[in-house]
């Protein structure tokens, strides 16, 4: 139907302008297209994103994947090496253009469709990987249309998958222009002659610009007719003149340049009388709910396994806070300031990177092995300090800033928040997931609420004397306790060394251990000079510490593995494999983990990978899929985000025949998983 309308429109326009001009259009191409690869050295078994960087000439336009009432979409024909494949083109949000009463979905400014190219796992390092594509597309002005072709090619080389920083920034900008998939299903109803679409969408999520629904399924609505888009609580309702009922309607809901892809099935949609674009009245309530959830999650985070090592630092400060000769309120405020400011800084950086198109979540910094090395050196130093190897007073500037010598408490709070980021406990996951779609000020308030929750127990001890009186009196026993508390810090350093090896390989772990040894020697040297009462005891050790920190420049992520071995009885996660298993009617348990997530590892060793659960899954024919997010896989990041989570762990249970998965708690038990598999423990 669209093609017929296009032919009739072109004929009418030609008849209208033929007497005025017999000249052919200027020599093309009228849309210049450049094929660009995000990396020119893709790794075996990896995916590489290609961009068709397109620039229309002034006055010309190209078409979206559904061109509307007129026009034709672009078609790509690929010539690739054996075993390689290209996914469908992904288009940015288009513009609307009405010509002669017909609606066109077009691009009049530079745009870049993206495509994901899959490299075969058996590709050989160093081999040339040629990519050729023939692109057929239509370009038009308001008067004439011209079919054009572009034969594009690029020669990649199989390598380590490294992406230059400038190329990554450019692709992040193009990705930011793509619509995001909407995780929750939509529904539509034809009420008389009205097509009414209901899209679940949080009332607190900020949207700017005029709303419009771009249908991908042809024949559902009248393209050129006006639409009515209304925000009604936690949903968006679109009304337009209907054409016919269809089994489902796919499309793109856009607000300005922000778009969301969706799929709608037939259902019942209640009408709304709200005015189009009216602001939601639930914005403040939703933001407050997310803030309270973050506070509760932060409180619970104090007892989560990944935060326990930092409790050794808190314990000594709590004992000191019980000393009436000290300044417990100042200690509590300084500690709280360190926690909250660190959470705000990490949250602000996360929001900024996501605004640039990066698919990252909470604890994103731990996906960089250089950050892991820095933490390894820091935790090693703390452990040696607790063990009595040396003494370290807070810097003078920190003391002055924290008021009355509480710089140590401030730095302890900052460290506690930084190391707590790998965890996602009850309440916290939902709150941080909501923060990613809230307006920036509200989102930062949620991150601040998380910091407040982490610091709340210490804050109460500082301001409630009755609680402090329950603490033991300071004494010589504190020295013994301090030595004991160095043990979990040494264990944390060992865990960080293991994570570094997983991220940067054996070479990276060797560099990390060498840097830790160098730092330890420098700290021992300073401690020996302190014991002898020498002035400027730290002066000779500083070069060694700086040299240890310089090891960060030598750390690089290990080349991506073709396939990291999944635990026995499980498979690596992919959306294609998930769809295939669900099509077979099998129950599926999908979990998302990372090597630096201690909560994840506790759940895996204590529940998921136990013999009892493995046997229950075998009896229940449960398929297990594992998504490894250690190095921040963007595809996994986008999937996690669609389930309203800001990071790992994420546990999903897919029942046969169910439309949506059940999101399981962040703390699992063997009995819980056995019951889900239909086996009574």
From TrEMBL:
The chain crosses the membrane at residues 283-311, 332-351, 371-390, 410-438, 444-464, 484-500, 506-525, 537-555. Its main location: membrane. Residues 292-496 form the Cytochrome C biogenesis protein transmembrane domain. InterPro entries: Cyt_c_assmbl_TM_dom, DsbD_gamma, DsbDN, Thioredoxin-like_sf. It comes from Sphingomonas naasensis. It is a multi-pass membrane protein. Keywords: Cytochrome c-type biogenesis, Membrane, Signal, Transmembrane, Transmembrane helix. Residues 1-22 form the signal peptide. It comes from the Bacteria. GO terms for molecular function: protein-disulfide reductase activity. It is found in: Membrane. The lineage of its organism: Bacteria, Pseudomonadati, Pseudomonadota, Alphaproteobacteria, Sphingomonadales. One of its GO terms (biological process) is cytochrome complex assembly. One of its GO terms (cellular component) is membrane. Residues 43-154 form the Thiol:disulfide interchange protein DsbD N-terminal domain. The keyword Signal applies. SUPFAM superfamilies: Thioredoxin-like (SSF52833). This is Thiol:disulfide interchange protein.
